[in-house]
Amino acid sequence: MYSVRLSYAWLYNTTLNFPISGDHWSWLWKLEVPKKMKFFLTDLDHCFRIYSLTSQTWYFLGFDRDVGFTTMPFHDWVPKGCKQDGASLFISAVWHIWKARNKKVFDYVSFTAYELVEAIQRLLKLPWTVFLHHTLWEGSQGGNWLAKHGSHSEQRLQV
């Protein structure tokens, strides 16, 4: 069961036997930021993979069948999810899990894993063709490049 007390004990590596100083987190502990920010980063792993709602959501989406999906280091998990065949599904799931977490924390609104999966599937069914129109504007280097070079391309921009 998750609790704030256990999380802080884990963060500060007290007598509880939680490994927080492994190589995959060493970069984090060297950062010159407050400990609460370091804790936030480590807690993302709990939010996106371990929490029961999210683990059920990943299961319903079929991601739990991937070897190491819930056990690999978090900093490897994100790039792996973004580079695989189901990258759009993975990113949409992360997005909706984060939104559901914030709704629960700030608005006291809860969702089921089925509701999250339905929302993710609706997002993926939306038409994602993007059209850009830009007028040259002095001082906007990125926009000016897009206006000059992008207008000559027949390729569609995929988001």
* Radius of gyration (Å): 20 Å
Number of helices: 8
Broad structural category: mainly alpha
- The amount of beta strand, in percent, is under 5%
DSSP strand count: 2
Order of helices and strands: HHHHHHHEHE
Biggest β-sheet: strands ordered side by side in the sheet? 1-2
Low-pLDDT residue intervals, each spanning 5 or more residues: 13-21
Notes on the protein architecture:
There is one protein chain. The chain is built from eight helices and two strands. The protein has helices at 4-11, 26-29, 35-50, 52-61, 74-83, 87-107, 113-125, 141-150; strands spanning 129-130, 157-158. Strands 1-2 form a two-stranded antiparallel sheet. Residues 13-21 have low confidence and may be disordered.
Q: What's this entry about, in short?
A:
Helix content is 58%, strand content 3%. It is built from eight helices and two strands, in the order H-H-H-H-H-H-H-E-H-E.
Which helices and strands appear, and what pairs or packs with what?
Layout (H helix, E strand, L loop, with lengths): L3 H8 L14 H4 L5 H16 L1 H10 L12 H10 L3 H21 L5 H13 L3 E2 L10 H10 L6 E2 L1
Helix pairs in contact: 3-4, 4-7, 6-7
Give the key terms.
159 residues, 3% strand, mainly alpha, 8 helices
